[in-house]
Each structure stands twice: as C-alpha cells, then as structure tokens.
Design goal:
With 475 residues, this protein is mainly α. The protein contains 20 helices and 2 strands.
C-alpha cells in the first residue's frame, strides 16, 4: 500500500473525531466531529487510491459525471432539509444494495448507494443543526462504546500488520457507520417514520426473497460466479438474490422475517397480509441454505417469544427449544459421523484455531485493524502454508486485531445495544422488540460468519435506539 503514513495520520484524526461526533453536546463539537471524519475519509481515499483525481478528471465525460453526481447529492440534501422525516427510510432502503466496482484491478461489492444517501443526509443534518436545530445528545451507554470501538480501531492502524486492509475497514465501514449513527440518532421517530421503516425493510427483504426463489427456478445467479461454480459440485442449489453471498442474503431475509414476526406476534399486522409475505420470506431463506442464518433466526424468534410471553408459554417454548436443539445436534452428529471436526464445522474450527494464537501473541492491543488474516497466514505459513485465514467469528476477530482493549469495547457495545433495545421496548413494544430481535440475529449470525461491524444494520439498531430514547413521548 502506498502512503501508509498518510493513512495512519488521518486514521488518528478519525479516531479523535468519532467520539466528538457521537458524544457531542454542542454544535461546535458536532461540527468538529463531522469535519474530522470527512477529513479522515478524504485522506484515506488518497492513501488507498493516490491517482483518484486524475481518474475523475481524465476526460470530459468523467468530469461531467462527477459534476452531475455532486449536483444530485446537493439536490438530495436539499430534499432531506425540507423533509427530514424520510431520511431513516431512505437510508434503510439502500443499506442492502452493494454495487460491484473494479478499483485498481480488484473487484469489490461496495455500499455505494448507502454512501451517497448518507453523505446527503449528513450534509442536510449539518445545515439544520447550524441553522438552529436543537441537538439531542445520544445516551452515553450507546455513544461511548461505539465511539471507543471506532477510536481503538483507528489508532490501531499505527501497528496494523496489514495497513491496506485496515484502511479499507475504516474508510468503507467504521467511519461511515459512525456518521450513520449520528444521523439516525437525530431523527424524530414519529409513527409515520417507524411504519415506513418497517414497510421498507419487509418489502425489500420480500423482493430479495422473491428474486432468490426465481433464481432457484432458473438456476441463474447475479454477481456470484464463485457460487455458480460451487453449485455445480453440490446436490442442492444455493441462491443469493442480488447479493454476492448466500449467507448475506440469508441474513437480510431473516431480518425481514424477525420484524414481520414481531408485528404479527403483537397484532400490528393482519395475518391475512402478513402470513403470505412470511411464506415468501421463509422460502427465500430456505433456498439460501445458510445454516448461520437459520440458527440466528431461531435464536431471535426464541428471544422475542420468551421476552413477551406469559410464564406458561415461556416454559412450553423453552422446553420445545431445548428439544429442537438436542434433536438438531443429534441429526448433525449422525450426518457428519466419520468427518473431522474441521469438515463438520465447514472449517470454522480450523479458522478459530488459526486466529486464537494471534490473540495469544498480542493480547493487549492485537495486531491492528484489518490484520487478523495476514497475521494468521504468517503463523500458519510457518507450519502448513495455509492461505485462507479470514476468521468467521467476530469475537475472535476483534480479539486478534484489537486485543483486550477492543474486546472490552465490543462487549460494552453489545451491552449498550441490548440495554437500549430493552428501554425502547418498555416504551413501544413493537419498535423495541424489532430492535432486540434484529440485534440477537446479527450477533448470533456473526459467531459463524464475518462482517458484524461491516453490516450497516447493527449500526441501525444503535442509531434508532438512540433516536427513540431521546425523542419525547409526545413527539
């Protein structure tokens, strides 16, 4: 990677700016935090792609496209200034859309629509704040852990074994997610806004599921060449809808199922409407064949039922859940008899065994953001020469990259998110249970699949919880 020193310097700027923005109590602190993160993003962009200005200005069509994009951004920001109520739903609507782009010869699936809408909404929020809008401080139990995690990650770029991957993690995920929380936390969660959020999530998840079902019928995939190849060697056909990964597809559809289940459970949606949609979602999820999504959905629904049901129903559900888990464990044991632990766990055990030594060697501050795979590869290369070592277990990844400091921030982040969801539930059951169910699903899914902090929906949980807790009951 070129310009490592620049990346480290601006990462430090972002590490300082994140707490300023999330814990802001004044317009000055808010503006400083937002500007600091903007400076960090610009600096990381130049560190990752030094010739980007030439790329945007090398021809008249590119200049026109750049100017057109900036104009569209300004128009969208003006719309958000006039109608701020649509910001949360607009952000949610594009949060699952990943666009395939080729940057310097490498293909990546990036949240480009989310970045565009987020930039416009942040610009609109800054304008409204400095035009006199009252800034509502985030609850500290939500803002401080999130800010601490981002700050530790930013500072860790100084000792990261893989500064390029660390810069990508900060540029594309952690710094934008900080802004996402700040924008969502200032939203007024009126009945209209809350209903629009539910409709957008369930509708887009249903569209994704329907596309997945059609792919199962036609055996035609989008953006998933590797999956198409692997399907040729299996007895079943996995689909990914408009995602590149069936597990990401499964996780998104499962989110829609959780929210719809909560609304049906609480009687907020008529069964005649909700059950057919639930059937489409469940069918799409099934064809993803994502075991991690199945397990995460089971855990989320179980938590929702146990939290809301009476004592007799809780006991019946708990007994049934234990029976299902034991039966499932028995079936899995029978199915994988004769296989190694590594084969039975789809190499998750092997990945864990290659990640734990990294944490053991760097227990306090880890090997730096984005460097777990590189560090594991170095250790494994000395023994068996393994190349693919990306951990699929979030706690292990955090421990290896950020050490005990990062683990403490991660645990505090989860505790704060659970507390925030429960407090919202006590005020408004449908919203609180939806947030809690989504949180459980994302956390459980992250125990067997990577991308917890890279998933915008975990930051939605934090931002929406903060927004609701800082909104007066009569607003």
């Amino acid at each position: 990677m070129e310009r490592v020193e620049l990346a480290q310097a601006v990462a430090l700027t972002g590490a300082v700016a994140a707490p300023l923005l999330l814990a802001a109590r004044t317009r000055l602190a808010f503006g400083a935090g937002l500007l600091g993160l903007l400076a960090a993003e610009i600096g990381l962009a130049f560190a990752l792609v030094p010739d980007q200005i030439e790329a945007f200005t090398s021809s008249a069509p590119r200049v026109a496209a750049t100017l057109g994009g900036l104009l569209a951004l300004g128009v969208l920001a003006a719309l958000f200034v006039r109608v701020p109520e649509i910001v949360p739903a607009a952000l949610l609507a594009v949060s699952a859309v990943r666009v395939p782009l080729t940057v310097r010869g490498e293909e990546a699936f990036l949240l480009v629509p989310l970045y565009a809408v987020l930039a416009a909404s942040a610009l609109a929020l800054a304008y409204r704040v400095f035009r006199g809008m009252r800034l509502r401080p985030l609850p500290l139990f939500l803002s401080l852990p999130a800010a601490a995690y981002v700050a530790i990650a930013g500072i860790s770029l100084f000792w990261s074994d893989d500064p390029r991957e660390g810069s990508i993690e900060l540029f594309f995920f952690l710094f934008p997610s900080t802004v996402l929380v700040a924008v969502l936390a200032q939203a007024r969660l009126t009945d209209f806004v809350c209903k629009s959020l539910a409709v957008v999530l369930v509708a887009t998840a249903t569209i994704a599921a329907a596309i997945g079902i059609s792919q199962q019928w036609t055996h035609t995939l989008f953006f998933a060449d590797d999956l198409q190849t692997s399907n040729a060697f299996t007895s079943f056909y996995r689909v990914s809808s408009f995602f590149s990964d069936p597990s990401v597809f499964g996780r998104y559809v499962a989110l829609g199922i959780v929210v719809l289940f909560v609304l049906l459970w609480l009687g907020r949606v008529r069964p005649a409407l909700g059950l057919p949609v639930l059937a489409i979602l469940s069918t799409g999820l099934y064809f993803s064949y994502s075991q991690s999504s199945f397990i995460a959905l089971f855990a989320a629904v179980l938590v929702v039922v146990l939290v809301t049901a009476d004592r007799r129903v809780r006991l019946a559900v708990a007994v049934t859940a234990v029976a299902v888990v034991l039966a499932g464990a028995g079936l899995v044991t029978a199915a994988v008899r004769g296989d190694s632990v590594r084969q039975a766990t789809s190499d998750r055990w092997g990945l864990a065994s290659r990640t734990l030594p990294v944490f053991g060697d760097h227990p306090v501050a880890g090997v730096g953001i984005g460097a777990q795979a590189e560090a594991s590869s170095k250790l494994e290369g000395a023994r068996r020469g393994e190349a693919r070592n990306v951990s699929h277990t979030t706690p292990l990844t955090v421990a290896a990259e950020l050490g005990l400091l990062g683990l403490a921030a991660y645990v505090a982040f989860l505790i704060g998110a659970v507390r925030g969801s429960v407090l919202v539930w006590r005020r408004e059951p449908a919203i609180g249970l939806s947030l809690l169910g989504a949180l459980v699903l994302l956390v459980v899914h992250s125990l067997a699949y990577s991308g917890f902090f890279e998933d915008p929906f975990i930051w939605f949980v934090v931002g929406l919880a903060a927004a609701y807790l800082t909104t007066a009951p009569d607003e």
